[in-house]
Amino acid sequence: MTTSTARRTARQCRLCRPSQEPNDYTLFLRRWVRSPARMGAIAPSSRHLAEAVCAPVPERGEPVVVELGAGTGPFTAEIQRRLGGRGRHLAVEIDPLLARRLRHRHPGAEVIQRDAVHLRHLLDDRGIEGADVVVSGLPWALFPTPTQHKLMDATAAVLAPAGAFTAFTYLHAVPLTPARRFRDLLADRFEEVVPSRTIWRNTPPAFVLHARRPRT
Ligand SMILES: C[S@@+](CC[C@H](N)C(=O)[O-])C[C@H]1O[C@@H](n2cnc3c(N)ncnc32)[C@H](O)[C@@H]1O
Fold first, then answer.
1. pTM of the shown model
2. How far is CA 82 from CA 25, 58, 87, 180, in A?
3. Strand duo 206-214 + 190-195: pairing
4. CB 63: neighbour CB atoms within 10 A?
């Protein structure tokens, strides 16, 4: 068989395989079409945003890191890289297809396909007292106020007193009421909330909110 015939055959073969897994961008977009408010974005976050969001994950010790809304896993990959096999990493993702991909791709993370509002029970079930860091990939600015409150209560219920919480917001959402409500909620629940510089190398551009010292 010539090289060009082999390439053509391989291409035809790929096209006729209906069970072939879509790439992350296609999968993410398909899940967005199904649940736009729950997905909150049409594409996974970039490596640059992942690095900024995951910065509080300590590079020493045995920390417990909880990730909310892991999606196709850009933050999961960065958390795993920073942990390098130490501590525990619980990745909570509500969507079954995304959770399945995460499990397959990141065996070092404990992937839990559940709603993040059940966080306290999820940790209790695993004998974990609290989280040192909660990294959020949730689309907070798209959630109605009662959902924001429920998820923040769930986060506060597991975060250690010296723990850190990080979330991101898209730049274009900043003036919108739900995004302002989320920032007010953070300011209400944490003693310190520090916004990062704008991460331009993300679609769309975003920035990170680093929150520390949860109020009791
Ligand atoms: C904006 S996407 C971010 C995905 C990924 N962290 C990233 O940055 O590319 C939000 C993710 O949160 C998940 N999600 C939304 N609500 C959730 C909830 N209540 N509990 C757990 N996951 C949730 C969605 O299924 C989606 O995968």
1. 0.90
2. 24, 7, 11, 31
3. antiparallel
4. 22
Tell me the β-bridge partners of 209.
Answer: 167, 195
Question: Does residue 212 sit in helix, strand or coil?
Answer: strand
Token pair for residue 157? 């219920």
Dist. CA 7 → ligand 1 center (Å) = 38
Distance CA 27, CA 56 (A): 29
pLDDT tens readout for residues 127-184? 999 999 999 999 999 899 999 999 999 999 999 999 999 999 999 998 999 999 999 9
Distance from residue 60's CA to the centre of ligand 1 (Å): 27
Q: Which helix (H) or strand (E) holds 51?
A: helix 47-53
17 pLDDT tier (thresholds 50, 70, 90)? very low
* Ligand 1 midpoint to CA 64 (Å): 20
Nearest residue (by CA) to ligand 1, atom 8, is: 45
Which atom of ligand 1 is the closest one to the Cα of 35? 25
Angle (deg, nearest 10), helices 24-34 and 96-105: 160
